[in-house]
Please model this.
Amino acid sequence: MGNEIISQHIDDFIKFIKFEKGLSENTVLAYKSDIKLFENFLKENKLNDVDEEVITDLIFQLKNKKYSNLSIARILVSIRNYYKFLLKEKMIKTNPFENLESFKVRKMMPEVLTETDIVNILNQPDLTTKEGIRDRAILELLYSAGIRVSELVNMELTDINLDEKIIRCFGKGAKERIVPIGDYVVDAIKNYLVYRTEISKKFSNYLFITRFGKKFTRAGIWKLIKNYALKAGINKNVYPHIFRHSFATHLLKGGADLRSVQEMLGHSDISTTQIYTHVDRSYLKKIHKKFHPRG
Model:
């Protein structure tokens, strides 16, 4: 659900909470302000679809604009209730908040995997099977390029150039970007392409296909990652977007500059990328505490 439905039904929602729910004038004004803020966020970033990633990006942007934790929590409650209203009125079919945990004030930083966690997960697919070879390529690409799961499932064969070691992505707002990839993912994709036609004989332009010859769904990638994280014994909440968080954090930790990371992630606003500098600082604090004699 994008800008159009958001804009069309704000007045309906305001009437509902004012006349049917009987909320106070101040509360109604706060709801309207919060939803208008969200509407503007979607317009500024040219977003047509709203999912968990969009809401997460909103949280990071608000945090970097110095909104207090309580203000962010209130804004999310307003948007969540608006979506509940739209779902109840059958104006939408799915709620992007459905799989998103309630906002926790202290949980502001994106969770990341350690490099050891990443390696353990990457080593889980069974490379004696064609599906395992495919899955290894999927995991390598998510981590090596930091792409969104929506970008991965929609990637076509013509979007990869293994000789030049680059991929083409179409991100939010249909913005195109070129992202470099490393030797590990190049090798993994080459190995997968050898067996791709054996996974399914059906023709498809999409890079990653199921045994039915169709592109993966977001839920399919989510399930695949959960399965391999479980096999690897990772206790963290592992989901597709955590590879993107880890990609950015590990780059900054290794000395990459913020603008380069912003370009690779496809962020239109550098304030969204800056959240990862805070994550990296927390890592440095842990190192200082562990190794400094007066840490």
About this structure: Residues 3 and 144 are 32 Å apart (CA to CA). Strands lie at 160-161, 166-170, 176-180.
